[in-house]
Specification:
The complex is a heterodimer of chains A (183) and B (348). Chain A has 183 residues and is of the alpha+beta class. Chain A is 32% helix and 13% strand. Chain A has a three-stranded antiparallel sheet with strand order 2-3-5. A two-stranded antiparallel ribbon of chain A has the order 1-4. In chain A, strand 2 (77-83) and strand 3 (89-97) form a beta hairpin. Chain A is elongated. Chain A starts with a helix and ends with a helix. The relative contact order of chain A is 0.15. Chain B has 13 helices and no strands. Chain B is globular. The longest helix of chain B has 42 residues, at 11-52. Chain B is mostly helical and 348 residues long. At the A-B interface, helix 2 of A face helix 2 and helix 12 of B.
């Protein structure tokens, strides 16, 4: 043990250094965020509660192709369709079991029409399981709640992968006649 | 009838009743203020440690969490009182009471300011040692009576720790006794006021150091909180306690801390006085009441407790014992020899 080490041991230099550090940190501002009062700002592109997008006319964008349900790793999207008038496909039920969702966002990427979205809303705890079973109506009303106004438009501009604003079928692609005529 | 009354109620008995009444009043005041201090010591500790860890500490209940101790007390009071099935019930009931009572009894000999002491006895310092040793009974009995391995280990650890550090603490204060020539705490404070440096902490720096370390171990505080080492013994000796019995242990621990801080303030930091050279330089400070200086010193020592808790990790048990027996006791003995030699030479 050198003289310096001996002096260090006797006068507790290391402990005094530690005490100085804790005293200094006492006067630095706390990093605590008082959560229910001060909310954490949501980062752009946050993946929260699901919503079904509506188009300009307020109609559901979803056509019931079922790609989202096929992609879903936890298999929590259930889609039931039926044959409507003129052989159009009618989405009867579109349901998401939110408690099983892992928020990977694959459904969003899979959707060819920009119909399913993940909102910035993340505070939806409840006392029973039923409120977490999202039906079509609930998902559509989520769109009105969390994507009102510009927010809904910007969502597709900024966070949709691949980036696109309108989800029209490319010209020259083979499509069903009736849909082509509708546009 | 009136004759008997006249015989019974003489001036002497009236005087005695007055004295007893005054003592009861003093006890009520001291107990009330101390328990309030103890309650807010927990709040203050959580605040200090919170800010040292760059957190906020309690802040939701009341203004800056100021009602937190009251909320805690109410919560503990209405908690379910669970007693283990195979517990030794009489001892289980008795243990927290012994712990709390021995801590509160120590308050009776502490002079808070000049002349304000409940029992001005000549062996005040010895009485304090006796009471802090009695507190160890509460701990070891709770460990035994709970019939749980964690409690038992905690109780054993605490007993051996308190006994080992009791020696070092007693020896560290021998130097103070030699300097003051008295065991009466008020006399020790007065002797310090007469002394040129005004505080025994300066000539008795070795004793003061030993006392600080021993006081930490004696009150089972970090870095020597092995009896309640959370990571290995759940909560140590009070693992099986719940509700208000648990609160009694908590109160006892903080009262013990307050008393250790008071002993440090009285024996080493000059109690309710400040050094003469300061009052000579600033005569205005003479007007400040003594209780203010006393409380400042006690609070400073309490803050030191929290500060060390926020800084140091726990020692290993053999390290704890090694520090106690191999460093602190020889150091305290050396201090006694040094003080005695210097006293006889007339230096101190």
């Amino acid at each position: 043990m050198t003289v310096r080490e001996f002096i260090k041991t006797i006068f507790f230099v290391e402990i005094l250094k530690g005490l100085a550090l804790t005293l200094r940190s006492m006067f630095t501002p706390a990093v605590t965020r008082r959560y229910p009062k001060v909310k954490r700002p949501v980062k752009p592109g946050f993946r929260g509660l699901h919503a079904l997008a509506k188009d300009k006319n307020g109609r559901m964008k979803c056509v019931g192709c079922g790609l989202c349900g096929a992609y879903c790793p936890s298999k929590c999207i259930y889609i039931y369709t039926s044959d409507g008038e003129d052989h159009t496909k009618v989405v009867d039920r579109y349901e998401i079991e939110v408690l099983r969702c892992i928020y990977c966002g694959f459904c969003v990427e899979a959707c060819p029409f920009g119909a399913i979205t993940l909102s910035e809303h993340y505070e939806y705890s409840d006392y029973s399981r039923e409120p977490f079973y999202m039906t079509k109506e609930k998902l559509l009303s989520n769109w009105d709640k969390y994507f009102a106004g510009e927010k809904g438009k910007n969502y597709f501009k900024k966070f949709w992968r691949p980036l696109s604003e309108d989800f029209r079928t490319p010209e020259g692609q083979a499509v069903f006649n009736k849909i082509k005529n509708a546009k | 009838m009136s004759d008997i009354l006249n015989i019974l109620i003489t001036e002497e008995t009236l005087n005695m009743l007055m004295k007893i009444g005054i003592i009861f009043l003093k006890i009520a005041v001291v107990l009330g203020i101390t328990l309030l201090h103890v309650a807010y010591a927990t709040y203050w500790e959580r605040k200090v440690i919170g800010h040292m860890q760059v957190r906020l500490g309690p802040i939701e209940v009341g203004w800056h969490g100021f009602l937190q101790p009251i909320a805690d007390g109410v919560k503990l009071f209405f908690k379910e009182d669970i007693i283990p099935a195979n517990a030794d019930k009489p001892l289980f009931y008795l243990a927290p009471v012994i712990f709390m009572v021995s801590a509160l009894t120590s308050l009776s000999v502490l002079p808070f300011f000049d002349g304000f002491v409940i029992a001005d006895i000549n062996i005040g310092l010895l009485f304090l040692f006796a009471m802090s040793s009695l507190g160890a009974y509460g701990i070891i009995l709770s460990g035994w009576a709970s019939n749980s391995k964690y409690s038992f280990l905690g109780g054993l650890r605490s007993a051996s720790q308190v006994i080992s550090y009791e020696i070092a603490m007693g020896l560290s204060l021998v130097g103070v006794m030699m300097m003051a020539g008295s065991l009466n705490l008020s006399d020790i404070v007065r002797a310090q006021h007469q002394y040129p440096t005004g505080m025994f902490a300066i000539p008795q720096f070795l004793g003061f150091f030993v006392f600080i370390v021993a006081a930490f171990a004696e009150t089972n505080r970090l870095p020597f909180d092995l009896p309640e080492a959370e990571s290995e013994l759940v909560a140590g000796y009070f693992t099986e306690y719940s509700g208000f019995r648990f609160a009694l242990f908590f109160l006892g621990e903080y009262t013990a801390m307050l008393i250790m801080s008071s002993i440090a303030a009285l024996c080493f930091l000059g109690g309710w006085t400040i050094p003469k050279f300061i009052t000579d330089a600033m005569p205005l400070l003479m007007n400040v009441p003594g209780i203010v200086w006393f409380l400042i010193k006690v609070y400073a020592f309490m803050f030191f407790y929290y500060w060390v808790r926020a800084t140091l990790p726990r020692y290993r048990y053999d390290q704890l014992m090694a520090i106690g027996w191999k460093i602190l006791i020889p150091l305290a003995l050396f201090n006694i020899v040094l003080t005695g030699t210097l006293r006889t030479m007339g230096v101190l």
